[in-house]
Amino acid sequence: MNNSLIPEVLESKRVAYECTCGSLQSIHRIYFCRHCHQLRCRDCVSHEVDSQYCQHCLEYIPSIDAKLKKNKCASCFQCPSCMHTLTTRAIITQSPTDSTQTQPKKVFFLICYYCRWSSRDIGIPDQTVASGNWPELETPNAKRLDALFDRYRLLAQREKLDKEKKRISPRSAIILLDKYGITPSLSPKVTATLRAKMAKSSSGFSLSDLKSPTEMNDFETSVATDQIEALDINAYYNTPQDMALGETSTLNQRLMQVETQPDHTSSLYPVSQMLLVKHSLRCKTCDHNLSKPEYNPSSIKFKIQLSAYYHIPELRIKSIPTLKIGQEFRLEMTLQNPTPYALHVTIFDLSESSDESAAIKVPQLVMGLAPKDDTADLDIDKNFQSQFNDDNNFISFRKGNKLGFYINVCPLKTGECRFRIGMKHDFVNTVIQSTREGPNDRQSQISWITHKIWINLGDVCD
Ligand SMILES: [Zn+2]
Ligand SMILES: [Zn+2]
Ligand SMILES: [Zn+2]
Ligand SMILES: [Zn+2]
Ligand SMILES: [Zn+2]
């Protein structure tokens, strides 16, 4: 019971808002574009990488550097044995080979304080600088991969050049001139240059043709073969009894080093910390930002955050009684206003077809929602009731920016009791307009917005 309560409070699946694209989402998973006045789900926004950073040292890494370093942090490593972060440890040593040297030397190695794995275990030499110039593991097939990268880059370049060539084809330009009656005698200069260009391209002499043969000569194309190494099934299924389990790497450890996939723990190598990205979201329809984080990697704040949770009244079910077919009951729901403006909400019935699983009756009134006020003391505010003059038949309670109301529901079928309602409310859009009176004149625009909301009350008892 307890472990099902938390997701129910934080992310209820019983109340789903319908996105413009038709997908159903909880209010915490959708965005509200205040320019289009529409809900946008994750599929209706374009995702852009804003910045890259290391989650361990919280360093911001420009995307060009990140690309060069293969999206890895240069200074942070993960333990290849337990995936914990490795720490650099310093010790003072006296060089035993060189007796003339009396100065003790400070050296560094990597150690995991969780499982005690250290870079000395696999024979990585100690480093003399703390930042460590840790030797990088040579990736098998690195040469082949680089060659492939180069070739595809070249092909892409060639395609781009071809495309550009096609766009300004001299032949079609001459035809076009002819079509509009511009004869060579009228524009001798233009025609001459076009003809010269045409001669050049027809002789097959162009920039891309000149470059490609020399640069692609040493590229080996892949050849298909039917000679493959036989798979040693015994290594997987008939392991010997005396196999040292402590020295065999686990599946997780192997997948951490996907390039080498060592089957022995002595071949485990420190794993560079992968970089994380901060990403921003953009409305696909109007191109405005719906979410933009701050660049600073240690900041969890947003420059722009248009999550629907902060702009759209949140509808929740207060409690669900036992559902029985044909038995009408009053369903208590709550509405919460997340904005600092007073809102006016109406709920209406949207059930259209006969295959609805419930008949509903919604209150025919405009519900005024008090603005959200973080400083208000909820216990002192007892005069809300009188202020709004509520009908107790429809409104069950009022507390700050929240109110409860009733919907009459009558389940009609067995199975899930599900119905659709509409919610209409006003939305106050504060746009900063630069007018003649002042540079920053705040002007509020009020518009009316309608949402479709699906309510799922769960299974009906027989
Ligand atoms: Zn927009
Ligand atoms: Zn938009
Ligand atoms: Zn959508
Ligand atoms: Zn780092
Ligand atoms: Zn470890």
From TrEMBL:
Assigned keywords, A-Z: Acetylation, Coiled coil, Cytoplasm, Cytoskeleton, Isopeptide bond, Phosphoprotein, Ubl conjugation
Pfam families from the UniProt entry: Dynactin_p62
Coiled-coil spans in chain: none
InterPro entries: DCTN4 (IPR008603)
Annotated compartments: Cytoplasm, Cell cortex; Cytoplasm, Cytoskeleton, Microtubule organizing center, Centrosome; Cytoplasm, Cytoskeleton, Stress fiber; Cytoplasm, Myofibril
GO CC term (a single one): myofibril
Family: Belongs to the dynactin subunit 4 family.
Subunit and interaction comment: Subunit of dynactin, a multiprotein complex part of a tripartite complex with dynein and a adapter, such as BICDL1, BICD2 or HOOK3. The dynactin complex is built around ACTR1A/ACTB filament and consists of an actin-related filament composed of a shoulder domain, a pointed end and a barbed end. Its length is defined by its flexible shoulder domain. The soulder is composed of 2 DCTN1 subunits, 4 DCTN2 and 2 DCTN3. The 4 DCNT2 (via N-terminus) bind the ACTR1A filament and act as molecular rulers to determine the length. The pointed end is important for binding dynein-dynactin cargo adapters.
Listed PANTHER family: DYNACTIN P62 SUBUNIT, DYNACTIN SUBUNIT 4
Entry protein name: Dynactin subunit 4
Superkingdom: Eukaryota
